[in-house]
């Protein structure tokens, strides 16, 4: 009886969570092309003001990599009405927090405030867009900040270069081949005029989406948005024409040396469809099936049972134009890297030729249901999802129905997608090795 009662309680709780996931929102455009999304949630006196720009690491001119990430830092330097170094002080002194992040595809800025400071958040983001101060002092300051970040996160971090190593070997012509953080010599060589030109090209209202979410009055918020963002002039439309990659038909073999590690790793990486495609969702599920927790296939087999690996993992790095699916492992003791790759390949081959069990299939769907609930459990998560779905995926309502894509994936599709994209002749095989003195 207790077991049945627990199951009923869990079912009711899940039903409540599922119903709570319906996210209501309202959209409109300003005359200057800025797209605005409002989400009202008056359950807590918190509001987030956020702007996502359609500019990322892939947007660079030859010899000028890393500009989007650089601007993530530079646009906190100050504006005509916010003194240099005052941005974070203003936010914290008004009970708020803020941050920004950059990917290969977009840049995202946000502030979280008590809801009585909504207008302050809108003013600050409009200031960032309308009145930034881009001068040599700020450029020089942030150049040193970015160099220190590179030293901490990449140059001196164990395995910090593995994504860059995949990118430079798996992509030949598409700008994903370059590091997101860029090359420091490119930033050193760039002129102030080049930084101003980059801002003028990409940081314009018609290349962005503003999301305001939380404890708001919709009518009042609309007026404030129009007052603060309406006067900002429209920019020229951003036109992209990135070269297409030819399919990988023969295994690419490469080595990468990292002087911060003692234990090597083996990585097999595949170039896969962009994250808007249904097949990319299926590859998400395949990565979770292979390594989603300690009960997953690779961990249980290679770490627990055979004790061959310290770690075994599959990841699906979703990107707009091409995604990257990778499997990787770190050996335990003197286990050869080839042996680790063979063990991982064995599981890939099973996926390509057999249907996963009904039990594993239900487990996968439960995992993605849980991820979906968690991703929309805060106004901050909702705001970023709304922005991403509009700007990069072209469908804001994915925030409500994206889970239906995962729910609709069949075991047969999992098999077929593994067979289509995860063959050994379609991949990069990368030995990630400790650097020796003579290398």
UniProtKB/TrEMBL annotation:
Keywords assigned: Hydrolase, Metalloprotease, Protease, Signal, Zinc
Record keyword Transmembrane helix present: no
Source superkingdom: Bacteria
Pfam families according to UniProt: Peptidase_M16 (PF00675), Peptidase_M16_C (PF05193)
Domain Peptidase M16 C-terminal per the UniProt entry, residue ranges: 190-367
GO biological process: proteolysis
Spans traversing the lipid bilayer: none
Gene Ontology molecular function: metal ion binding; metallopeptidase activity
Alphabetized SUPFAM superfamilies for the sequence: LuxS/MPP-like metallohydrolase (SSF63411)
Domain Peptidase M16 N-terminal: 36-149
Signal peptide region: 1-20
Protein family membership: Belongs to the peptidase M16 family.
Protein name, as recorded: Insulinase family protein
The species this protein was found in: Gelidibacter gilvus
Phylogenetic placement of the source organism: Bacteria, Pseudomonadati, Bacteroidota, Flavobacteriia, Flavobacteriales
